[in-house]
């Protein structure tokens, strides 16, 4: 192992055989392992027959731990960073640490392996040439719908992480925001015994998930096809914009601004501006 180096090591998302040979070499070769949950990582290390000093680095202590990690690296030690499952930093702790170490000129080496988002996308049958990873949604429905609404018009495939506690509520909010006809695929329990993919419209998928308690168990990746026909601003939005702008601007100028924003025809917008001004 290289001295004074942090190795960011991906671990399996279920099936232990998905741990790479290189990950095993690194975990066996470093001086210590920084992990999210020591009990969880101990189980993995026991399975591999590896014994190493562990330090915990999780969401609540990560910033305090940075100096401790820096001291170890200054002393020339090599450290592996792992999370409970998959690739560290991907909806998991590690970003502040890696950012701080890079900022101070330490070497950070990625050891690639499983991540639920790429695993799910690779077998979902939705477009993968362009996608957006959104991680976890807010827990409360109002905030969740707001977040979903930001991407209502997004043409790229959307990828979300979700837990069993909120899967049905989140799917219902997605259906309300994206529309019943949008294609969706959910990947449940990837690489594990009950791995399942459910695809179709929101209605199809919600019916399958709601049909059996077992279908709501485990961990989920939700993938939503992008909007194939992103709407331009709706008539209501345009009317609202005019009502706001016409307080400050003459109709011609307001029409030009809205045309720039929406791509709509300037002349038609000018006519609309005159109509709306007559009503104000
Ligand atoms: N770092 C991990 C990665 O690289 O995918 C993600 C960790 S995040 C805390 C855990 C979430 O990832 C779960 O709630 C679920 O949405 C998704 N996930 C992890 N393992 C999964 C699996 N085996 N099947 C489906 N989703 C999984």
Can you walk me through this structure?
The protein has 11 helices and 10 strands. With 280 residues, it is an alpha/beta fold. The strands form 2 sheets. A 5-stranded parallel β-sheet has the order 3-2-4-1-5, sandwiched between helices. It has a 5-stranded mixed β-sheet with strand order 6-7-10-8-9, sandwiched between helices. The chain is elongated. The relative contact order is 0.11. Bound molecules: S-adenosylmethionine. The site of S-adenosylmethionine (SAM) has 23 residues, from helix 5, strand 7 and strand 10.
What is the count of distinct domains?
A: 3
Spatial shape: elongated
What would CATH call the class of the largest domain? Alpha Beta
Q: How many DSSP helices?
A: 11
Helix/sheet category: alpha/beta
Bound molecules: S-adenosylmethionine
**How confident overall, as mean pLDDT?**
94
């Amino acid at each position: 192992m290289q001295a004074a180096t942090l190795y960011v090591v991906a671990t399996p998302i279920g099936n232990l055989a998905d741990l790479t040979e290189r990950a095993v070499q690194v975990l066996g070769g470093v001086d210590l392992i920084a992990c999210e949950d020591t009990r969880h990582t101990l189980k993995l290390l026991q399975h591999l027959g590896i014994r190493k000093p562990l330090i915990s680095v999780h969401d609540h202590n990560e910033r305090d731990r940075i100096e401790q990690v820096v001291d170890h690296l200054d002393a020339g030690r090599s450290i592996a960073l792992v999370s409970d499952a998959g690739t560290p930093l991907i909806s998991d702790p590690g970003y502040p640490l890696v950012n701080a170490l890079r900022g101070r000129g330490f070497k950070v080496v990625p050891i690639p392996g499983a991540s639920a988002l790429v695993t799910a996308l690779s077998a979902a049958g939705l477009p993968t040439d362009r996608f957006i990873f959104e991680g976890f949604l807010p827990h409360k429905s109002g905030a969740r719908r707001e977040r979903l609404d930001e991407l209502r018009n997004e043409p790229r495939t959307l990828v979300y992480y979700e837990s069993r506690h909120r899967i049905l509520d989140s799917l219902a909010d997605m259906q309300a925001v994206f529309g019943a006809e949008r294609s969706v695929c959910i990947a449940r329990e990837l690489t594990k015994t009950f791995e399942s993919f459910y695809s179709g419209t929101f209605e199809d998928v919600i019916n399958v998930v709601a049909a059996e308690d077992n279908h709501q168990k485990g961990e989920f990746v939700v993938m939503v096809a992008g909007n194939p026909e992103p709407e331009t601003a709706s008539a209501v939005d345009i009317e609202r914009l005019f009502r706001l702008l016409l307080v400050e601007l003459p109709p011609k100028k307001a029409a030009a601004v809205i045309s720039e924003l929406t791509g709509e025809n300037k002349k038609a917008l000018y006519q609309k501006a005159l109509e709306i001004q007559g009503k104000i």
